[in-house]
């Protein structure tokens, strides 16, 4: 699908340009007509290179009749994020026209800024993500997105070729893994059950046998005493599944990084039922788990030399005759007791048993992913995810990785006042916190709840370094993200792979 080429044969050439930039002498030197056409169009200043501005020209000779100019904005403002947005926007524009064989000239400035390998990786990754659409349920073939068949890169110099090739391969592996995560999350919730998710994890092993998957059912979870996880699950007719993925690509002696992901396959709120408007999109409440699955799949595909364990408690949060109730007190697998104030704060409950279970690995570190709180979305909007940790080194490294990939994280606080807010009069802790009596700081009180379960029961000290990523904010596309279509965008996998590499 992706290649390096010297001959310009495609339905359309994608030409990203910076604001105010003219075509350099070397670019497309072999095709005078095309060069003249582009120069002519630029004279009119319809296209000035403003960020994500597009113009389609019919300027080339037979082999490549069309050119899409895409603006990159000012040179000094170039970021990985802008570059990926430009690539994604171009691919989606091409699909709109139903062009499937494409070529692209990557500006020298971009290659110089990020290096050949990273540029290739990020370009292919963005193109791969833009190519995926959740349209398999559309009956009319014409209504479906036409998939890109080829994307060839021009003007890759001899010395860049090897790095470019390897970057392209990595980028494709990454976008395959991320699109798998998106596909799982977009799948309607009656199909995407805990058992379906467990099967999806088992399926990954077929392609990547280095991964080991095991699944604990209700009986095993009960034996382990996972009372919080099972409490949430009991209102649903669907059996819960505690999914474990292990990829041990590192040295035997190396402690694993444990990734924990919230796998609520549908969050109705339970007896504390959500209002209808808040219930749509709750099929995405398993995205934490899907992110962990995608990260482990990508790690295996890339052959990372790291030991990584994924823990994915999966169940449904439903109202029913056997639902857990407000005022219940659930007992976590380490014996910690939780007063239920609201059954819609279920994510933290299934995660707390996973955070306890993680201790058996004596992990190097634990990072959890969860669409945990609406409050995080209120705080950060739709373009950043909340990051919580008391470990400065983890914060620093995660922030750096998020900058490298263009996924945006923003640190939010943990602290005494939030820990105080989730204290219960009748149990060790309550599943809803209340700062100031109006549910203020909901993202932080949720994080403080999780933090409680990362501590040793006896000493109260941290059992492992831990970070929490609240995905609620940026898990899906839509407004303001023309380069991503409906549904899950796979946020977090790129950052995690950079972090683990
Ligand atoms: N899954 C939701 C959080 C959520 C909301 C994610 C919107 C993505 C978009 C979570 O289980 C939830 O319902 N949280 C409650 C907690 C509250 C009851 C303390 C919330 O945020 O309202
Ligand atoms: Zn909920
Ligand atoms: Zn939820």
Helix tally?
A: 16
Query: What is the C-alpha radius of gyration, as a whole number of Å?
Result: 24 Å
The average pLDDT value, as a whole number, equals 94
Main sheet properties: 9 strands, mixed
* Cα-to-Cα separation, first versus last residue: 25 Å
Helix content: 25-40%
Strand content: 15-25%
Which characteristics define this entry?
binds ligand BES; alpha/beta; six-stranded mixed sheet
Outline the secondary-structure elements.
Elements: E1 2-4, E2 12-17, H1 32-43, E3 54-57, E4 66-71, H2 80-96, E5 101-105, H3 108-114, H4 116-131, E6 150-154, H5 161-186, H6 194-207, E7 211-216, H7 218-224, H8 227-233, E8 241-248, E9 257-261, E10 263-267, H9 276-279, H10 287-302, E11 307-317, E12 329-331, E13 337-339, H11 347-357, E14 365-370, H12 374-380, E15 385-389, H13 392-405, E16 409-411, H14 416-421, E17 429-430, H15 442-452, E18 466-470, H16 493-500
Parallel strand pairs: 1-6, 2-4, 2-5, 5-6, 9-11, 9-14, 10-11, 13-17, 14-18, 15-16
Antiparallel strand pairs: 3-4, 7-8, 8-11, 12-13, 15-18
The structure holds ligand BES and zinc ion (ZN) (2 copies).
